[in-house]
Amino acid sequence: MSDPSLLAVEGLKATYVNAITALDGVGFTLARGEILALLGANGAGKTTTLKALSNLLPAERGQITGGHIRFAGLDVTRTRPADLVRAGLVQVLEGRHCFPSLTVEENLVSGGLGRGATRREIASDLDKVYAHFPRLTEKRRILSGLTSGGEQQMTAIGRALMSRPRLLVLDEPSMGLAPIVVQDICRTLRRLNREEGLSILVAEQNAAVALRFAHRAIVLENGVTVLSGTASDLKARDDIKAFYLGHKAPGPSTSVASSPPAFAG
Amino acid sequence: MEGFDGLFFLEVLVGGLLSGVMYSLVAIGFVLIYKTSGVLNFAQGAMLLFAALTFVSLTERGISFPLAFAITFAIMVVLGITIERTVLRPLTNRPPITLFMATLGLSYVIEGAAQLIWGTQVHGLDLGIEDVPFDVSGVFISQFDLFAAAVAATLVAVLSVFFRYTRIGLGFRAVADDPFAALAVGLRLPVIWATVWAAAGLVALVAGLLWGARVGVQFSLSLVVLKALPVLVLGGFDSIPGAIVGGLLIGAAEKLAEVYLGDYFGGGIESWFAYVLALVVLLVRPAGLFGQKRVERV
């Protein structure tokens, strides 16, 4: 195991229904213990990239037409989604996707089932998740469909943690949430990264949030990786703000005003 | 109308409700599969026929009742898993109408196979329950209907406990809620589908035996699916409680309509009244009385 990278994506191309090109050459690596952010505007290919990582594209009539994805020695495109979860690659889908008619706790338990955990493991993992997200403790018997957006995001992340991931993949975790909740979730994730060595890949439209949170970032545009660097480097660049807004030519450095609340932290 | 006979009304109502239980049983088989895979399994009626025919043929060859039940159940499980593997799995992610057409074709294949294996004659099926009415404080109730209701209630209870308290049951409810998320979470959908088809096979077996005992085991048995459709429309395609209540409502409404409205239409309205009722429900509540109203916060 001399290869330090946990995940390696190379020249990834993907289409939907054999007609619509979604990815046209995405490449990056993620080292063990790293937090990597995937930035880009709407339709840049972030979600498609992440779904490809969990081999979920076939379920949405998409297919990978070129390139490789390797996770911890596995060829992802030849591995079933359930086996990827067991290998430690777990994804929190865009829009949270909790099971609305299951209680919060049942949602969490389903993550343990996905891994094939024993009853005792599930019980101890539940305690850990509740320690990470104390707000869920009091909601454990509530149907998750009736909880708030932030609680649903916590449930979805908790459900993923129940599978004991090595690499946690998050798609737009900040979407539609209050800044304070986003901050709370980011803090928990960073603690997991620091204390338990959890590697994290996060796709975000909100570049400000992502760059504060991640070690390194890459930028996608029209299904192609166009830029990569450390978070601090990218933060210093004006054109990043332009990239995630989808403009080609960045204006003079005053364009920050376009999303003021996100920069307030 | 002069003098409303309350006791008679009650008798018709109870009779209707009890016969509605039989409709519910058939409808539950549909709901199980629809909830997990979004397929309206038209072959459910053929499965019901196949189960009843297999059971009768086994008992006619001198096999004891419990053994015949066990063997038939095993065959239904194998049949269900085979259908899931060979017919539905290659068609995943196809439009629902494709899947529906596949099950429609499947129902003919199963009926044909049943005919090939067991022959075409009509079999009688005696479950050892006599269909004699008995008197409960002035209201006559059919003993067989009561037995059927008890069996159905037990079956529903067993299924509910299974889905509520087991791992695979939790998986079933998760898939029914959000199949894509279930896939992402790492649940093994094929295992869950196989279980659901096995459960649908069990429901088909029980319904097949009760219906077979009532009307004889013959090929028209597979047509009970047509009676299940208004039940599903009324109760919602994705709700087991809906299937139960829908069945009861249809059963009661049919009988009451026949008795109290039949004269105005020259009688015989029992056979089509359910469909009219379903049509009205479709106009007012397209999702059915219990159909998925997504749990949403306000």
Automatic annotation (TrEMBL), chain A:
<dbReference type="InterPro" id="IPR027417">
    <property type="entry name" value="P-loop_NTPase"/>
</dbReference>
<keyword id="KW-0813">Transport</keyword>
<dbReference type="GO" id="GO:0015658">
    <property type="term" value="F:branched-chain amino acid transmembrane transporter activity"/>
</dbReference>
<comment type="similarity">
    <text>Belongs to the ABC transporter superfamily.</text>
</comment>
<dbReference type="GO" id="GO:0016887">
    <property type="term" value="F:ATP hydrolysis activity"/>
</dbReference>
<dbReference type="GO" id="GO:0015807">
    <property type="term" value="P:L-amino acid transport"/>
</dbReference>
<keyword id="KW-0029">Amino-acid transport</keyword>
<dbReference type="InterPro" id="IPR003439">
    <property type="entry name" value="ABC_transporter-like_ATP-bd"/>
</dbReference>
<dbReference type="Pfam" id="PF00005">
    <property type="entry name" value="ABC_tran"/>
</dbReference>
<feature type="domain" description="ABC transporter">
    <location>
        <begin position="7"/>
        <end position="247"/>
    </location>
</feature>
<keyword id="KW-0067">ATP-binding</keyword>
<dbReference type="InterPro" id="IPR003593">
    <property type="entry name" value="AAA+_ATPase"/>
</dbReference>
<dbReference type="GO" id="GO:0005524">
    <property type="term" value="F:ATP binding"/>
</dbReference>
<dbReference type="InterPro" id="IPR052156">
    <property type="entry name" value="BCAA_Transport_ATP-bd_LivF"/>
</dbReference>
<keyword id="KW-0547">Nucleotide-binding</keyword>
<protein>
    <submittedName>
        <fullName>ABC transporter ATP-binding protein</fullName>
    </submittedName>
</protein>
Automatic annotation (TrEMBL), chain B:
<comment type="similarity">
    <text>Belongs to the binding-protein-dependent transport system permease family. LivHM subfamily.</text>
</comment>
<keyword id="KW-1003">Cell membrane</keyword>
<feature type="transmembrane region" description="Helical">
    <location>
        <begin position="39"/>
        <end position="57"/>
    </location>
</feature>
<keyword id="KW-1133">Transmembrane helix</keyword>
<dbReference type="GO" id="GO:0006865">
    <property type="term" value="P:amino acid transport"/>
</dbReference>
<dbReference type="Pfam" id="PF02653">
    <property type="entry name" value="BPD_transp_2"/>
</dbReference>
<keyword id="KW-0472">Membrane</keyword>
<feature type="transmembrane region" description="Helical">
    <location>
        <begin position="138"/>
        <end position="163"/>
    </location>
</feature>
<protein>
    <submittedName>
        <fullName>Branched-chain amino acid ABC transporter permease</fullName>
    </submittedName>
</protein>
<feature type="transmembrane region" description="Helical">
    <location>
        <begin position="229"/>
        <end position="252"/>
    </location>
</feature>
<dbReference type="InterPro" id="IPR052157">
    <property type="entry name" value="BCAA_transport_permease"/>
</dbReference>
<feature type="transmembrane region" description="Helical">
    <location>
        <begin position="6"/>
        <end position="32"/>
    </location>
</feature>
<dbReference type="GO" id="GO:0005886">
    <property type="term" value="C:plasma membrane"/>
</dbReference>
<keyword id="KW-0812">Transmembrane</keyword>
<feature type="transmembrane region" description="Helical">
    <location>
        <begin position="195"/>
        <end position="217"/>
    </location>
</feature>
<keyword id="KW-0813">Transport</keyword>
<feature type="transmembrane region" description="Helical">
    <location>
        <begin position="63"/>
        <end position="83"/>
    </location>
</feature>
<keyword id="KW-0029">Amino-acid transport</keyword>
<feature type="transmembrane region" description="Helical">
    <location>
        <begin position="272"/>
        <end position="291"/>
    </location>
</feature>
<dbReference type="GO" id="GO:0022857">
    <property type="term" value="F:transmembrane transporter activity"/>
</dbReference>
<dbReference type="InterPro" id="IPR001851">
    <property type="entry name" value="ABC_transp_permease"/>
</dbReference>
<feature type="transmembrane region" description="Helical">
    <location>
        <begin position="95"/>
        <end position="118"/>
    </location>
</feature>
